[in-house]
Amino acid sequence: MRIVVAAMLTLAAVPAYAQHEQAAVPAASPANVAADANWKERLERLDKAIDQMKAKQGETALAGYSALIADYERLYAAEKRTLYCADSDGEARAYVPGITTADKATFVEKFWCTALWGKAFALVDLQRVNEAIPHLTRAVAMAPERAQYLAELGYVYQALKDFRTSLDLYTRAVDAAPLAPDPDFQLGRALRGVGFDLIELGRWDEAEAAFRRALSINPNDEKSKGELEYIAKNKPKRS
Question: Which pLDDT value is given to residue 101?
Fold first, then answer.
């Protein structure tokens, strides 16, 4: 049995957000919109839940994420506009040109999306994969150009063997990768997801091209090397 190569982001790579948010949140930057003066307390709770996930305390982390999400839902309960959370001003421009709020859209505290991602991650880690879908779907709706969330949701559908839905999400992640703070990592990861789905759909040549592109970004990408070896051994021969 082949192993899904496009696994969710390793917890070792998850930043402690508090390390990057020492100053007051600049209200002028949509990437850092604070809902109220309690944003630091919410940030500390988010970091705590992430640490609990790292420590394999999944149920405890899940409770922490759920409480945070409930807090955000209360904070923005009266908001009728489309809600976006952006990780950078570049991403914000993709949602609302000019980094401004508009009559029909506004930016929310970006850690809301992080909490949604974290809850989904915890659920997958607890083997409750189907339950992760609505939380990642909401994160993608609020951050539609975030390659990480698109790839996470692609992974979930891949794990459920819905390869067409997974392929669509990973393809969107490929397109969104340039906006990420770690574009090469996100692009390589998305391409591996695309390649895996294409193999499962019998589109061997396209899959090979995806893995070769991933390998061109990172020549030490052992997962892509392994998949290319798999293709070489199993790709149907042309008559």
Answer: 64
DSSP state of 34: -
Residue 69 and residue 112 in contact, taking contact as beta carbons nearer than 8 Å: yes
Region 14-37 average pLDDT: 49
CA diameter of the chain: 68
Query: In a 10 Å sphere around its CB, with 0-12 CB exposed, 13-18 middle and 19+ buried, how is residue 14 labelled?
Result: middle
In terms of Cβ atoms closer than 10 Å to its own Cβ (0-12, 13-18, 19+), residue 93 is middle
- Span(s) in the chain for CATH 1.25.40.10: 146-239
Cβ neighbours of residue 177 closer than 8 Å, sequence gap 6 or more: 147, 183, 186, 187, 190
Residues near 16 by beta carbon (within 8 Å), at least 6 away in sequence:
47, 50, 51
CATH superfamily membership of 146-239: Tetratricopeptide repeat domain (1.25.40.10)
Place of tokens 């996470």: 152
Q: For 108-119, what is the mean pLDDT?
A: 94
| pLDDT score for 81 | 87
- Contact, 170 vs 187, CB < 8 A? no
Beta bridge partners of 106: 83
| pTM for this entry | 0.88
Q: How many CA atoms lie within 13 A of 202 on its CB side?
A: 2
Residue whose token pair is 């759909």: 201
